[in-house]
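ugh finaly. both done.
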Amino acid sequence: MRRLVPSVLALLFLMGVAQAQPLGSQDMPPTLIAKENFLGWPNTYRLNNGIIEARILTDVGPRIIDVHPAGGKNLLYVRSTETGQQSEPVWKFRGGWRLWVAPERKSTTYAVDNAPCRVEVSGATVRVMAPPERESGLQKRVDVTLAPGESRLRIVSRLTNVSGGPVTYSPWSLSALRPGGRAFVPVDLGPSEAFDAVRHYILWSYAKIDDPRYKFGNRLIEIDHRKVKASLSGGKGRRDDESKIGVDSTQGWSAYHIDGTLFLKRFPTSHEGRYPDGGATIEVYSSAEFIELEQLGPLTTIEPGDSIAFPEDWWLFPRVEIPSDETAALDRLGLYVEKTAW
């Protein structure tokens, strides 16, 4: 059996896994798991507990390609020109949720994930294991659990070093979301008497500080996708509609609100950990096509045969309204952040 990296940091993540295990009830209908053809991928697994429905691709990936409240619309964005395909020689965006590694490098981050995966189903959990990646030296495994009676999807990503030497990576979780909503990212204040910088706003080279999609508050950043305009520029390179920012928040949440549904992501952070991209724990990429909520774990050295785990919870709350004022929005979001605490 492979062992996890024996460090305080790895133990922190494992504690998060143990403490946040979904709790079912015998009074609740069971979670139903079925294999189906979805968008041309014949080996897609659908999880449904009557509150949330989710779909996991195994013909490629692993990818979560659909999640929505029962009877609702997919919150994830799917690129229609890349559905139902597999075995391509190059990396494909496709959409949905994917597991990457940072620092962002062409050879390791964009490792091709177009091959069939191994699948195990146990209770309310679907485990998907990708083939080993020669470029990164990793094998990725994702456990997706939808407990009976719960409005959360639990995802535990695991990176195992299958190479002959140590590797250092940060787990990187990316959710491409349907356009037209508002994303929210919390900002840490820190002590007002501190002499050193206590928080960081991280801007990519193609981000503009006066971009109308951004509302930089003192405790909250809002990214309003409705204000993203389609690019008029063509050719290679970045388009005018693309932008990306990051923050070093330690609050362990980010959110997206669209069509009255609040999509709340919860995940652990480490005060002692060293993070890539200038210390970013949360990043948000947006373009006219979609918006992406991303969170990262700390950079960790993984010895051959060892693994690191990164857990997260996706909570879905229908019939929610988020005010436009920062204080009022924080108060409303805070109600859901408090009830979903790790």
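ok and the 2nd:
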Amino acid sequence: MLPMLDITISGSINVLGYGLATLGPAIGVAMVFAAVINGTARQPEARGAMMSTAWIGFAVVEALALVGVALAFALQ
């Protein structure tokens, strides 16, 4: 017979929420740079313009992740 295991969950549910919230920015960053790679493959001479726009999009998406970190710590 197997012994009974007492599993307890300790900590804040905010950490779990932030872990799930990081999926959105991760997918957003992947989509931004996938679009730049696709656009560069189609039109290599427009790489400079696409990269500058991509860095702006990257910053906006990462700002959402930083807001999530701040809220995870503020709500504890």
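summary for the 2nd one i guess: The chain is about 75% helix and 0% strand.
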